[in-house]
Amino acid sequence: MSFIKIANNKNIFHVSHFPFPNSQFPFSISEYRGKLENENETAHRASAEPLQLAGSSKTNRKEGNVPVEHECPLNLLPRDIWVRIATKVASNSIRDLFNMQASCKVFLDAASSEAVYQHVTMRVIPLVSFLFYLDRPERRFIDRCVEAGNADAILRQGLTKYFWIVRHGIGMELLSRAWREGSIEAGYLSAMLLLCDHENEEEMQRGVEMLESVRTSGDVKSCREFFADIFWE
């Protein structure tokens, strides 16, 4: 599995290779490295030339008119629109999100916003990835998604805390937070765990209410399938 780290250094975007253990990331970084470097070099040379838009002419400049500074055409659209586009991209494919970030500074800025990380899909990242690389770019990417309120990332963080690291208190807090952020799967799992706490009637009642909400949504079967896949990874 591969992951991307993107940095902006004098308008050149560097792509690094980071392996995930025992899993396959949906794309390979190395095949893009040469292509991205060539594209960035071409873009850098082009940015050094004055931009001429339709309707302007060299003749006018020769007549003594003061040339108008034209900004990048991508900036003609509000940043809000690019953020919405990047959010849609992130919710479908991490690969496409990183390609978008690597394409230009405008896209890098829009695709690095909190709203985008809140909706990044976690489906392609195996649960084991949440246990490794505590101080590596992979981990920092996941942590940023959690901080942004990404329900899928918070759910997986809660799973690792509760079952693998055996920190039940923090695990339940994360699962409850994921439920509040809109994760049906987190609500289902939280309900099951609360119903197992036979010593606390108040918690059991809360579990019943959560399970009823999941049942009403009609997603009980999909939740069971989701956790079957998770624990069989």
Summarize the entry for a quick read.
The chain is mostly helical and 233 residues long. It has helices at 30-47, 58-62, 79-90, 94-103, 105-111, 114-118, 137-147, 151-164, 168-180, 184-195, 201-217, 220-231; strands at 2-3, 6-9, 12-15, 18-19. Residues 38-47 have a biased composition (Basic and acidic residues).
Explain how this protein is built.
The chain is 58% helix and 5% strand. It is mainly alpha-helical. The strands form two sheets. A two-stranded antiparallel sheet has the order 1-4. The longest helix has 18 residues, at 30-47. It is elongated, with a radius of gyration of 23 Å. The two termini are 14 Å apart. Mean pLDDT is 73; it is low at 1-34 and 47-63.
Keywords:
233 residues, mainly alpha, 12 helices, elongated, At2g35280_TPR_dom, At2g35280-like TPR domain-containing protein
Pick out the low-confidence regions.
Answer: 1-34, 47-63
Q: What string, H for helix and E for strand, traces the elements in order?
A: EEEEHHHHHHHHHHHH
The helix tally amounts to: 12
Q: What's the pLDDT, averaged over the residues?
A: 73
Cα-based radius of gyration, to the nearest Å: 23 Å
**CA distance, first residue to last residue:** 14 Å
Biggest β-sheet: count, sense, barrel?
Answer: 2 strands, antiparallel
In terms of quaternary structure, the protein is: single chain
In which order are the strands of the major sheet placed?
1-4
**Outline:** elongated
Would you tell me the structural class of the helices and strands?
mainly alpha
Helix content: 55-70%
Beta-strand content: 5-15%
Q: Could you give the count of β-strands?
A: 4
